[in-house]
Amino acid sequence: MSTLVLTTSLETAGAADRTTDSRSPARYEVRVPGPDSDVVEVQATFVLESDVIGMVVHSSAELPNGEADLLEQLEVRDERGQALEVESLGYGDWRVTNGSQGMAVQLSYRIRLEHDRYSWGPGIDEVAYRNDDGLFFTGGSLFVLPDAALPSGARVHFDVPAGWTETLP
């Protein structure tokens, strides 16, 4: 049996809810497509604090933007499902074109599980890794946040392969 371990201060939710408005807490759905998957898929809904969204990233000589260089297929949509343009600001930050404080958005993106291929200043246990027991993530390696601040009351739902468990130590 494999385990997905996530170290973060987010609280878990029993089910994902893909809608949000200015009164709803942020929601994240983390999906591991299969036991040998080389990506993790994330969908999020939250309210923007500004027009900037970001990750908490760590330094790596090989990856100028830290863990953000392992993020791919970032899409941001407004409440109506209309695509919003996103401009990379570097080092794990993106500007949401036409985004503004109080705007509810929906994000989808994938994280490539290649963290163990690179050297990390604080060490691999501060980012993400895979071993025979499963996957280990810190929240900073996994979540794009409104203005790099953890939303109060955020909820996370995991969709993992059959036989897997998830743990929040």
UniProtKB/TrEMBL annotation:
InterPro entries per UniProt: Peptidase_M61_N
Organism domain of life: Bacteria
Biased composition (Basic and acidic residues): 18-30
Region (Disordered): 10-30
Coiled-coil stretches: none
Positions of the Peptidase M61 N-terminal domain: 28-165
Residue stretches spanning the membrane: none
Protein name: Peptidase M61 N-terminal domain-containing protein
Organism for this UniProt entry: Eiseniibacteriota bacterium
